């Protein structure tokens, strides 16, 4: 083996006996590499199965946790008050656009049966009607367009 170490550090041609020894070493190392590759593949397969099982268990836990959710204990009256709390004041300068205000009861009604029943029963949530008319534009915003579409006078 000592002579092989010297061959690794030089460009000398190996003797026939050294060549035979190197070929045996290569055969053994390649077999060992294949064996370790197979072991890695088996471990990766096992790991993949464990990841899938882990995800399935996490999903099941989440589903069962939802049964014990505190929001299920809220009476409809409290749910309705919460809806009203998050309903924005209906002013033109509201941060929430008109389309979102109009869609709020519809969105709440898609969560669950209780929320749908509560949102349908609350007239305050349905107090905004969208007739599809455009919002009024300030006169100053339109003025340049009257003269020239490019903004030039």
TrEMBL record:
- This chain's protein is named F-box domain-containing protein
Could you name the domain of life of the organism this protein comes from? Answer: Eukaryota
